[in-house]
Amino acid sequence: MEFIDLRSDTVTLPTREMLEAILTAKLGDDQYGEDETVNRLQEKAAEKLGKERALLVTSGTQANLVSVMSHTSRGDAAILEAESHIVYYEAAGISGVAGVMPITVKGNMGALNPVDVEDRLLQQHRVHQPKVKLICLENTHNRAGGTCITPQQTREIAEVAQKYGAKLYVDGARIFNAAIALNIDVKSLTRDVDSVSFCLSKGLSAPVGSLIAGDKEFIDRARVNRQRLGGAMRQAGVIAAPGLIALESMIERLKEDHENARTLANGLADLGLGVDLRRVQTNIVMVDVSTLGMTSEQFTSKLMEFNVKASIYGKTTVRMVTHRGVDASHIKYVIEAVSNIVRMKTS
C-alpha cells in the first residue's frame, strides 16, 4: 500500500494538464520581462486579487521576505502574530536578512486584535524603539489550525495601520482556502491590504512558486529585492504554466479538501482525541494525542505502521493536512488506523 501523506498540502503533485502545459509554454527571458507565460500568470494573479501588479517568486518564504523588505528599511519594526509562519518557520529572515525587528502580538485563533495592535503601536518612542512600518497577517493561519481571518477583521487592522502610518501585508499562502471556506470572492480578503502573497504549490497543486501582489511602486521594489535574494529567473514559464492551470481550475476543488478535513476531525474527536472543531475551518486538523497517554512522536510512529504520515507540531500535538492527493476513502482508512491505535493503547 502507498503512503497516505497528511504532513502538508505541499506534497501535492502537478496534474497531467499542468505537465502538458509546461511542454507547450511560450518562453522568454523573464529578467527582461519577455516570458509571455510568466507575464500572463502575473496579470491573472493581480486581477484575481484586485491589485495593480503581481510578481512571481520561487516560494512562500521568499514572498514573505521580499514583501517585508519592500515595505520597510533596515532598523524598522514589523508587528506579527506570535505564532505566524514568518516568526516560526523562516530562519529569522525578517531580522537576519531584512534587518527588521519583529514585534510579536498574540492573536485569537490566529487573528490579531486591533486593540492589542494599537496598544503596541502606542508604546513606540521616537528614540528608544524602532518605527513600526509594517503589520503582517497570515490567512489562513497555519499554527492556529488553518483558521480564516474575515474581511471585517482585516479591515479593522487596516484602519489601525493607516492611523499609524504602517503598511498592511497578508501572508496569504492559503488565502484561496480562506475565500472558499468563507464563501466569498478572494478580493474581499485583499481589498483593504497594501500587499498580499499566495502559494501555487500547496492546495492549488502546482509544483513550485508563489506570487506577490500590490501596487506598481511596491512591485517595482519587490522586483529589486527579489534580485537581491537571487530570485530572478530566466525561462520561468515552465513554472508559470502550471500556475496558470492552478488559478484556472484548482481553486473551487479546495472545497473537497475542507470536507475531508472536517470528516477526519469529527472521526478523530469521536475516538477521544483532542480536536478543537472550531479551528477546523479549512484543510488543517490539529490533534492533541495526550488523551492517549502518547507523545506526538510516538503517535506518528504508530501511524507510520499503517502507512500514514503526519507532522509533529509539539510534544503532544500532531498536524494533519488534506489535499488533492487524499480522497474520502483515504480519510476513512486513516480514521480506522487511529481506531486501531486507540484500541491497542487501551486494551
Would you kindly provide a written description of the structure presented here, covering whatever features stand out?
The chain is an alpha/beta fold and 347 residues long. The protein has two domains: 12-249, Type I PLP-dependent aspartate aminotransferase-like (Major domain) (Aspartate Aminotransferase, domain 2); 253-346, Aspartate Aminotransferase, domain 1. The protein contains 14 helices and twelve strands. The strands form three sheets. A seven-stranded mixed β-sheet has the order 2-8-7-6-5-3-4, with helices on both faces. Helix 7 links the parallel strand 5 (132-138) and strand 6. It is globular, with a radius of gyration of 21 Å. The mean pLDDT is 97.
